[in-house]
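INFO  loader      accepted 1 record
INFO  loader      residues=387
INFO  predictor   begin
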Amino acid sequence: MNVLNVEEPAFMQEEDVRLFDDMVARFVQDHASPEETARWRANQAVPRELWNQAGAAGLLCVSAPEEYGGAGGDYRHEAVLMRQLGWQGADHFGISLHNAIVAPYIWHYGTEEQKQRWLPGMCTGDFVGAIAMTEPGAGSDLQGVKTTARRDGDHYVINGSKTFITNGQLANLICVVAKTDPSAGAKGTSLIFVETDGCEGFERGRNLHKIGMEGNDTSELFFNDVRVPVDNVLGGAEGLGFIQLMQQLPQERLNIAVQGVAAAERALATTLDYVKSRKAFGKAVIDFQNTQFKLAECKTKLTVAKVFVDYCIGKLIKGELDPATASMAKYWVSDIQGEVIDECLQLHGGYGYMEEYPVAQLYKDARVQRIYGGTNEIMKLLIARSL
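INFO  predictor   done
INFO  writer      dumping tokens
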């Protein structure tokens, strides 16, 4: 999508990245037509077989090491995937959480046995990943998690509830944030993987009704004396969970920024098409100076956002993206995304409020960007600590 006319940085122009971009574009065109994505929204989930189809096409865990079934790529390939999904209106498919949040915990921190056990299935789609952080009483404050994992011989017994869990209805490999030592604060937090197929005591609650992102299943999860082997604690040791979370959260927040730019680019492109064809007072809406000024503002804001996000991608692939900069990207881009899409909806007039127009869905989907991954208010607190 070239609506911004921003040249890609050199690291995004390498041949393997471009070839992967073309492959993703074809996959999305074949599997995520407007009619198909409408079915996702109606069903509040993508079809389960789409995960295996994505695995067969090489789209799952593209940045995972080849020895575990991954494509051996890096974050550039994940960014390409997220952008194509956003540009083509297929971003309700929760593949980026599976690929660029859950799987990296395993290959960065997992034992060799854990990598061998879980990553190949994540690459094929036999495992669908989710991460269970948020609880009814603990959102951005991860130290407030109440779910416990009590050691009982060679098992942990997990008790607690989680909510707002992306991929929650379909996921069968769930990374659970739990307290293995409730008296130790952050140092008592561990990440424990639960394979849910046939797992006694594990229950899925409602597929939650949301005002946007309806095609992405988002659920309540309940753990009632769920027993998992001690080998399922990530990295093979208790008490490392909070550190692991903090080290990976910058990438999660950059994901949100990448997705935000892509969605806003689509909104701008569809709005340009609309104002060029829509007539008012005898001329195209694009010919009014107010329309031109509003679109100029949108394009400028998105250009700045895209350049900054590309800078952050470059820092991430070099291992240099710090938490404060990632927080800037998440908060600022999600704010800009909301502003731009709101202006684009306004330029559609009454039609912008009709769900048959893409801008209406984009407007609904944008709102959550300022909430998940840590609210934008929390992002500002993290940035302030760097002053």
